Amino acid sequence: MVIYPAIDIRGGKCVRLRKGDFAQETVFSENPADMAKKWQAQGGQFLHLVDLDGARAGHSENLETVRAILAAVDFPVELGGGIRSRENIVEVLAMGVRRVILGSVAVRDPELVRRACAKYGDRIVVGIDAKDGVVAVDGWGVSGDVEVIPLAKKMKEAGVGTIIYTDISRDGTLAGVNVEATARLAHESGVKIVASGGVKSVDDIRALKAHEADGIEGVIVGKSIYMGTLDLGEALAAAAGEA
């Protein structure tokens, strides 16, 4: 199981939101590239980046910051947040980003997802962000009027191999990951799932690891490693079944 340390970018800074609320923002670093180097030094396997401004705007807004991060580290990076066109996908992949995360466009333009998967294979992943089983779009501000599992199955048919599933109600709360919903999604959709939202401690990592056979591929860790309720090294050990 892979551990993905997260860096959310807003206005060129490394921030964390509570439940996706832009009014509940905490700035953790003025220099996201330095934070990326920190997570790499601690053993991070794959860096998860979210362009929060892009999620609202509908196109990438913090690419200069992303370029600085790519220049600072040499472990793989994935990027999501407002990437909703073929041109934006091409631009981001050309920069050296390993995987592009498509979110709102999975609801609104599944054909774009299908074409992207056909061309780029596993470099395309889909982010499904949901509250009470209903998908949210446009930076989590709007209901997508579709349920999580049917959308995941549709994305599998489109060629998607990995989905990042975020429980919005838990994101940034340190309330514990929604293991049950994540495992159910993995089992019923047949798609590899990366869990996100609410991770607090190594117990969450162990709980997800127990469902690895269901298809839980990894977990994104954000606020927990910034606030110190989870040690990244301990999380990596638990994900490897060593702790």
Radius of gyration: 16 Å
Looking at how many chains there are and whether they match, the oligomeric state comes to single chain
Identify low-pLDDT runs.
none
pLDDT averaged over residues: 94
User: CA-to-CA gap between the ends?
Assistant: 13 Å
What does this structure look like?
There is one protein chain. The radius of gyration is 16 Å and the shape is globular. It is 39% helix and 30% strand. An 8-stranded parallel beta barrel has the order 1-4-5-6-7-10-11-12, surrounded by 8 helices. The chain has helices spanning 32-41, 52-57, 63-72, 86-95, 104-108, 110-120, 148-157, 179-189, 202-209, 223-227, 232-239, and strands spanning 2-10, 13-18, 21-29, 47-51, 77-80, 99-102, 124-131, 134-137, 142-147, 162-167, 192-196, 216-221. With 243 residues, the chain is an alpha/beta fold.
Overview features:
single chain, 243 residues, alpha/beta, eight-stranded parallel β-barrel, 12 strands, globular
Task: Set down the secondary structure blueprint.
Layout lengths: L1 E9 L2 E6 L2 E9 L2 H10 L5 E5 H6 L5 H10 L4 E4 L5 H10 L3 E4 L1 H5 L1 H11 L3 E8 L2 E4 L4 E6 H10 L4 E6 L11 H11 L2 E5 L5 H8 L6 E6 L1 H5 L4 H8 L4
Parallel strand pairs: 1-4, 1-12, 4-5, 5-6, 6-7, 7-10, 10-11, 11-12
Antiparallel strand pairs: 1-2, 2-3, 7-8, 8-9
Helix pairs in contact: 1-3, 9-11
Provide a short characterization of the protein structure.
The chain is of the alpha/beta class.
